Write the structure tokens for this entry.
Amino acid sequence: MSNISSDLKISASILAADFKNLKNHIHEAEIFGCDEFHFDVMDGKFVPEISMGPIILKSLKNLINLPLEIHLMVDDPLDQVDSFIDIGVDIITFHIEACNNPSELIEKIKSKDIKVGIAKNPNTSMDKIEEFIEEVDRVLIMCVEPGFSGQKFNEKVVDSISELDNLLLRKGMRRSVDISVDGGINSSTIKICKEAGAQIFVSGSSIFWEGEVRSNIMLLKNSLRDKS
Ligand code: DX5
Ligand code: ZN
């Protein structure tokens, strides 16, 4: 069986795991082939829900051996970022819609040797991201409105993925900035996103909600291998 290109990564969204069974779910995601974990932070302001913060992350951190991305769905991320930096994570992604001073935040995160991602909602124009693209390691394209696991993929975002892919190609930055997609990623939408140019596929409900984590991950990985 051919391997998935090492550029393509599946990231498991912990938000969708079963919290009664979190230790096992994290372990299974690791041993059955996920490449990263994704930790969704929601503040009840930028999005309606409140999810998890640094106190919970601190106790989970020693269960996690894969790279860890923090997805900050919070207003004024500059005020919230220090505790995540102190815990020691691999990448911190913030929303352009929530941040008044992106360059300052990017600089702060990078100065601690942590990678930076910038996220945009489905209806936010790519122009808002473009001026910061040279400063970041990853662009995360939301494929649903942020706030919940288990929503339906918004087909409209496929054009945004292609637009970003072309923009990065034009700027000669296709190898230095990853395109990540989050929301509604399952065994069919993962293929569409890959074809449009994405490399990192965040998935929550498709991994953790039904059936076995092992076969769910295998299904996603097989779809990435599928050439048809
Ligand atoms: C939603 C979060 C996602 C979410 C993904 O706002 O950012 O990371 O957990 O879950 P699924 O894959 O179920 O859409
Ligand atoms: Zn997320």
